[in-house]
Write a structure and sequence with these properties.
Length: about 575
Amino acid sequence: MSVDFDHVPYLNASLDQTTKPWFMAADSAKMRVCGAVMVKQVANLAAVFRKTHLIDEFNKRLSAVAAAGGDLLYGGRKGIEKESLRVAADGSLSMLDHPVGLGSALTNRYITTDFSEALLEFVTPPYETTWEALHCVCDIHNFTYSELGDEMLWPASMPCLIPEDDKIPLARYGSSNVGQMKTIYRRGLGYRYGRQMQTIAGVHFNYSVPQHFWKSYQDILGNESSVDEFRSEQYLGLIRNFKRMGWLVLYLFGASPALCKSFAGGSVVAMKSLNDETYFEPYGTSLRMSDLGYSNQNQSRINISLNSLDEYVRDLGQAIATAEPSYKDIGVKVDGRYRQLNANLLQIENEFYSPVRPKRVADSGERPTTALQRGGIEYVEIRSLDINLFDPCGINQNTMRVMEVLLLYCLLLESPKFSDEELQEVANNQTQTAKYGRDPELKLIRFGQPVSLNAWASEIITGMLSVATEIDRHDKNNSYFEAVHLMQGLVDNTESTPSARIIAELEDGKVGFFRFALAVAEGHRDYFASIAQPGDTAREQFRREADESLQRQRDIEAADSVTLDEYLRQYFA
């Protein structure tokens, strides 16, 4: 947005009062200082003007949505994907195959694996209420524990007692072409980024805005494009704003301020030692989301536009088609065995890491970008949530409510397209919050100007409270409002954040991160054992799905009619 400074109230008077003594001086050095003062004041006033405009426009949009009636903000669909490492009783990474009782990792709709054979991923269907989503996550945990024997689920995002790279088993999906492709892709990730890095776990929050919202909101904004185009455009605006404000998720829910020294072979020398077993950042919130974790330099030069869906698809396609010399050195097929799918910047779309992704459910064999081109954006996937060690399921209803409200706030807030300068601000704010988010002196960058994390967070939460009030109208309770209101307490008192609580537990108990997390894992295992009901309906449902998924995998393997080489050629054609 451009600002006409000739029409900004009080601007000229403000500048005159500050600079008049300097203009009266003949000294050229003072004139130069005066110019610098003027530039700084203009920038500050522009930032204030832009912030005020955004807040006013947000309030107008929210008021129009409320006046339209029909509970337009209620009923968005929420799904959870939660990763957990399987560990032995001593806390070491499991070396056992994926449990047969959990079915096929290739075709089970609820339980699969991510990078490693030991990295489970639990997937819920989308639900309208947070209670249904949480209940499903809990049921999947309960069923999984019934099939784990002496093993446990690691309760933290940062890994357990982790072995060297070549000892970490890749996920396996059977002999079908699609199954082999999934394993080859993971082998490539290991060569490119290291296998240890891929064992970092998190929680993904999938969200789609209520369907009945779109037509009314299109009328409110006076937009005349097709519904699909309008929806995609608005989702991209949401995504851009989430990128701008996603640091708040790291501050509020970050739960990885420390890690076991076995990670990276104890070579993370830039970090402080809490004790003989533990590295940590004193003010850290989410090391998983720092330059130590997924936001690594290997992908920092891949620029994927979020300014339009066409640009997003184009840039991903170019990255998949652009050769990378360092990856070429790895080799693609060496001695008859695939090391990676290709030697390009990205093997496939999913390799590009972002804290938020536009998504559409793809048809069988359909590439993600092809699905987006076919029907536009259907939902967003938020990937920046750490596993909450203090909750047996790794997430709770309040977290889901806050995430839903934040995403709706990002949707209703005007979302200008990114400039290169702002993209640098976004990256800086995420890294700074991940590593130093609880530092009271920390300054983020907004509109080119420094701002305290506390002040910006409080402003966002104020807007979120208005959105929460609108959602709560449906059930006539304050569950969303109260969940968001609790977050202001975390902003006011950093010691109440999950990351601060973890550091306090380690310091007060004089214990290392590994032993602390192992004790939490044992507690979670005992919790699920205490609530297990062997004959319940949910358990039978998951057992039936496990059995049927094994048959679906066999059917896929039997149906293959081309070689793996030909399958990959057709996939990338």
